[in-house]
Each structure stands twice: as C-alpha cells, then as structure tokens.
Amino acid sequence: MHFEFNDDQKEFRNHLSRFVDERVAPQAEALDESGDFPRQIMEELGELGYLGIKYPEEYGGAGLDEPHIYHAIFCEELARGSLGVGSALAMHTSTATFGLYKWGSEELKQRYLIPALQGKMVAAFGLTEPNAGSDAASIRTKAVRDGDDYVINGTKIFISNGTQANFVTIAARTAPGKGFDGISLLLVDTSTPGFSVGRRLEKFSNHCSDTAELALEDVRVPAANLLGEENMGLINLAQSLNDDRMMTAALSLGLSRAAFDASLRYSQEREQFGRPICKFQAVRFRLVDMLTRLESARLYTYYAASLADQGKDITKEAAMAKLMASEAANYICRMATQVHGGYGLMMEFPVQRFLRDSFFPLVAGGTTDIMKVIISKSLGI
Fold this sequence. Notes:
The protein folds into 3 domains: about 5-115, Acyl-CoA dehydrogenase/oxidase, N-terminal domain (Butyryl-Coa Dehydrogenase, subunit A, domain 1); about 125-230, Butyryl-CoA Dehydrogenase, subunit A, domain 2, CATH 2.40.110.10; about 235-380, Up-down Bundle (Butyryl-CoA Dehydrogenase, subunit A, domain 3), CATH 1.20.140. The chain contains 13 helices and 10 strands. The protein has helices spanning about 5-25, 30-35, 40-50, 65-80, 85-95, 95-105, 105-115, 235-270, 280-310, 315-340, 350-355, 360-365, 370-380, and strands at about 125, 140-145, 150-160, 165-175, 185-190, 195-200, 210-220, 225, 270, 275. It has a 4-stranded mixed sheet with strand order 1-4-5-8, covered by helices on one side. The protein has a 4-stranded antiparallel sheet with strand order 2-3-7-6, with helices on one face. Strand 2 and strand 3 form a beta hairpin. Helix 1 runs parallel beside helix 4 (about 65-80), helix 8 (about 235-270) runs antiparallel to helix 9 (about 280-310) and helix 9 (about 280-310) packs antiparallel against helix 10 (about 315-340). It is globular. About 50% of the residues are buried.
C-alpha cells in the first residue's frame, strides 16, 4: 500500500486551505449556533470551480484525472474548518449529484447538474426511510409507472440538504422483489406538486448541515427522470454508497486535524506547575496517540481514493476507510477534550463542537457495525 500527493494535488490543497482559513473557519461557530445552511460559502466555491471537482469540463466541472483524490482533499479541508459546512457541500458534490451525472439524460444534466456545480442549485440524496435505515434494501417508497410518468409515494428521513434541495435523487421500489432488486433511482424536482419537507430534524451535532424528513404524496415525475435502467438499484446504489463512505472518511480526517491542531496549540500555550502542559508525559503521549490514529486513517483513506481513480471496486476499501477514519475522529476529539481539561467543556472553545460533531461520521454513510458487516463479507464470513 502506497500513496503520496503529487505537486498539483499539493497546490490544490494549499489554495483550498487558504479559502477555508479565510472564509469557512471564521464562520464555523456562528454557523453552528444558527444552524444556517452555508449557502454563501457554497456559491463562492461554485464560482471558483470547486464544486465540480468530480465531474468533466463539459458540465462545468474540473475534468481532473484523479477526481476521487481531489474530492477527498476537498472534503478534508472543508471539514477542518467546519464539519457542518463540509458535510453539506460534500453531499452536494458527491452522492447527491453522482447518479445524475452517471445515469441521467443529457437534458437532465443541462437542467440540473450544471447549475448544481455552479452553486445555483442544491442537491440531496433520498435513500433512508423511517423503517429502512441500516437495512436500506427494505425501502417502501414506491414509484408506479403511469403512461409517460412515474407516480411516487413514500417518506424519507435523515436526508442531508433536505430542507434546501432543489432536486433529490429518490430511491424507490418500481417492482416487487427482495433486497435491492426492483429498486430504481428517480430525480425529483422539489417544486413538484406532492413533494414536501415534513420537518427539519434537530441534531446535537453538525448543525449547519441540515437533515430533513421528506414526504412524497402522488408525486408525478416524467419517466425521463429515471436515472439508469429501471430496477437496477443494486448496481447503481452500490456505487453511490461507496462514494458516500469515502466522503465520510475524508470529512472525518478534516475534523480530526482540527481537533489535533487545536490540542497541540493549547498544550504548548497552557502552563501548569511552571511549564507548558505538553511537557508532561501524559499529555505528550495522548497527543502521540491522536496523531498516530490520524495519520493511519489518512493514509488508508487516500489509498482507497487512489484505487477508485484506477477504476477498481472499492466496496471493502471504502468501508474500511470510513470505519477507520470515523472511529479515529471520535477518539481524537474525545482526547482533545481531555487535553483542554475544563476549557474543553466551555462553549467559547471549539473543542466542544469538535466532540459533538465527531459522533456524526460514526453514523453517516452507514454505522460502524454495518461497515464491519461489509468488510466481513469480503472475508467470506
């Protein structure tokens, strides 16, 4: 296993890092308190071309040869400034637009993908339902063919960007079957009659990445909005979910970096018993453990991204990257609270936000236990 950034990737990171330091990090606390969707940041990134990292130039994308590596850098850097901002925009630039690019018609791409990559539209991905969480194949939302349309009925929950989305890729059952058989993906414009946001769901973490419950009641969409072939959900969803897990792994890296950097700085500045607390073995060893987990997760995440750029199946690797990076982020943020002591519990320090946010990647993109199920299947057990 080997991975190393090339000069172009390093330059890309440096440019994006400056944007995060100037535009994202200074707003992080305010956005966390208000819970506002980071629309202005999104529009600025769209104007700068960052929202099209994974897509070709003909749709306003960057046309990069290694889009998965660049997108991982994008996710990591944004999450370093704010996991909420990173989560909202990573969903928009990855899972929520992937199906549209991969299987959508040229007309749909012109109408939705191009504005989305310009930051003028917000995208969401609707898979999870109240009774179909980890068991995503048990979705009950139905899409029934009626002439030149599909009529969709169902409810979705835990949908990132749900209150803001202009369009949502909806996973719906188009034929009877077990598991993912009989499931199709359909693009739904949120202005369509019968579509509504049931409610915005309040989380204790990741506040400015909104999460919603969506209701679809006799929502009629053109058959041309079908993404890919009908009933091909197993193949289509598998690729989308791999993207989602890689995105979550990279976001975890950014959060881990923010928590580690804050802890290192604080340990060098905070004095007790006449010397900086970083001089005490207990604190030094805690920082070493944090850094070791961070660097291990980073190496594997970018290794998995490089495999994806080579066109390889990364079902196992994406699950392992997500498992490793999300667990590392939660550990690092807990240790950051310990390094900060009493100040780690104070709202004036960002460490409390890091700790709260660190629980989001453990669940987003599939729980830790589900990742272990996926990985164990690769072992034949």
